[in-house]
Amino acid sequence: MSALIRYFLSKGIPVAGYDRTPSSLTHRLISEGADIHFTDNVELIPRSFRSSGKTVVVYTPAVPESHTELTFFRSNGFEVMKRAQILGMITQAKRGLCIAGTHGKTTTSSMTAHLLKQSHVDCNAFLGGILKNYGSNLMVSDQSDLTVVEADEYDRSFHHLRPFMAVITAVDPDHLDIYGTADAYRESFETFTSLIRPQGLLILKYGLHLTPRLQSGVKLLTYSASDEKADFYARNIRIGNGEIVFDLVGPSLMIHDIQLGVPLKINIENAVAAIALTWLNGVFPDEIRKAMRSFAGAERRFDFQLKKERIVFIDDYAHHPEELKNSIHSVKELYPGRKVTGIFQPHLYTRTRDFMEEFAQSLSLLDELILLDIYPAREEPIPGITSQVIFNKVTCTNKTLCAKEQLPEIIAAGSYEVVLTLGAGDIDRLVELIKEILEKK
Fold this sequence. Notes:
This protein is α/β, with parallel strands linked by helices.
């Protein structure tokens, strides 16, 4: 949503809005000119936005249907649109490079945007994370019509897009409160492939269980971290001394010695996809090599908060079992032999219900677990579904279950080597406090 706010402000269009909780991001948006309030109250809607003929209302499906202000707008004849609908309208006249997938899409789309922005090609971008290189999730260009979009599958939102080119990174089941079954979830991605424009292109992770439904003239290519059966893959991967370097192989393409600015093993795969997409849109190999080395990553995507000899603190947005597993494995590869403590806040009652076994398996990889209460977001509680159902199944013996308010006291009393905060709720509001406590220790 914040990228859209910034887009309209950049066009000189006034923006007001509601958010559930203040954050560093909402503070920045207010300083940039947005009028934001944090209590669901119709009286707080600015008077200049109460005319249905002059105001368009954009909402995310995370807002509950019972929301008072949303109800007011709907019952008074305002044009009310989902975020994805208006994003589809904005990008319809441009060449959309749309990155979709259960996980990996924020990093891959961020890499894609950075590679294009640092090249002679340039781009626009609407991203799901704040890029550290730019301090924003919005990029605008007056010379390029290429538009990088992070395509959100929740509520089938990405079906409003009409990609020029698309990437699909993963189709592990998620959002089963919306889709019901894993097959229905996968089918939504197959529908997304049918929306790619004629003469367009799909870049698919090699080995995904997905049957694309491509229009006539749409080309299909594959990518992989290392599988040479894919069209694009990494070869001669070198990991050591906190660095990852590899060679990129593609059709009629070889780029030697690409160094990852964010040296995580999972980022090899993300980088291969981003490099393939940008090279196919005219970015030169030397530009790719230079930009990939300077890529600083997105906030809350394996985001180092402290990196000292005795203590390391990383904050990560991971909230799906597969993401948790990848994040924990990455930490253990970077810091072999050191105790890894994970602080996880489950996101949504339905996701907890549907994947409690998988969550427990991933979290059991930790040396120590601190498990917080579920962040409900848009949902009402489900009887019998609390963090306890995950906690009971976790096999690591050093584990604690606590409320978010108890966390600072627990951290202050503990002993740590590597700390990893995980989750998509409001755990990020505690990052600065956790950092302060760990620095004192």
